[in-house]
Amino acid sequence: MKILVTGIAGFIGSQLAKRLVERGDTVVGLDNFDGFYHRATKERNLAELRPHIEFIEGDITDRPTLDRILAGKQFDCAVHLAALAGVRPSIRAPWRYSHVNVVGTAHVAEALVAHGVERLIFASSSSVYGNNTLVPYQEAHRVDEPASPYAATKRAGELLLDTFFRLHGLSSTALRFFTVYGPRQRPEMAIHSFARSLELGQPLTLYGDGASSRDYTFIDDIIDGIVGAIERAPRGFRIYNLGGTNPVRLDELVKQLGIAFDKEPVIFREAQAPGDMLQTWADISRARDELGYAPKVLLPEGLRHFQQWLRGNIPW
Ligand SMILES: NC(=O)c1ccc[n+]([C@@H]2O[C@H](COP(=O)([O-])OP(=O)(O)OC[C@H]3O[C@@H](n4cnc5c(N)ncnc54)[C@H](O)[C@@H]3O)[C@@H](O)[C@H]2O)c1
Question: Which fold, 2-180+217-245+280-296?
Answer without folding.
Answer: Rossmann fold (3.40.50)
